[in-house]
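Q: Can someone sanity-check these two? First one:
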Amino acid sequence: MEISIEQKKAIAVIKNYLNVEWEDSYFLSEYDFVVDQLIQNSKTSKSSDIKSISEGNQSITYKDNSGPWTITDDVKAMLPKPYIKLFY
């Protein structure tokens, strides 16, 4: 099964959040719904990241720590707690 670029991005974000080096196939079998949610969030995050809009001189303020490939609260709720790395 070929992994799409969007799936690879989502898996990389999840690996980074969980501090793990599991195989990509494991994420697609056990956390496929989380991968799908991250991909969906990346497609719809354009307007949800806006904190405020001013029309006089056109000012837009975005939320801190937000972006298309951000682990949001809905994604965190579907994942286990991140693993602590004791050795680097």
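And here is the second, same format, sequence then tokens:
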Amino acid sequence: MTGRSGSTVADAALDAAHGAEIIFGDSDAPAPTLHYSGPLSITIDGEPAVRYTVRAENVHRSESCDPSEATFDVVATTGFATAPIAVFMVELHQGLDRSLDHSVADTIISTIRRSDPTVGAAE
């Protein structure tokens, strides 16, 4: 999770999704194939949000335990705390024994909520 300012929710989501180029890239190997899907307009805790999913294939493997494929989901919505925009990211490795199904990203994203400002507040 990170915060952004000086951008729209949609632009922040797309900018973060393009981070997949760095996350899955390797300067010493051919670039992975990246497939972008989105933008998908959703709501998070009643607020508008934008989601992108990036599917990476042919990811360079330095070790046998490195994934050859992965998904990278990005959701941006109005800020939750100190930044005007909150950006959440879920990275799931694929192509390995016991890799998690992409539905796990859906489950994680479905749990995003604003915190209750009264919890833990001094009385």
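A (reply): Looked at the second one. The helical segments are 9-17, 20-23, 103-110. The beta strands are 2-4, 33-44, 47-57, 69-78, 85-94.
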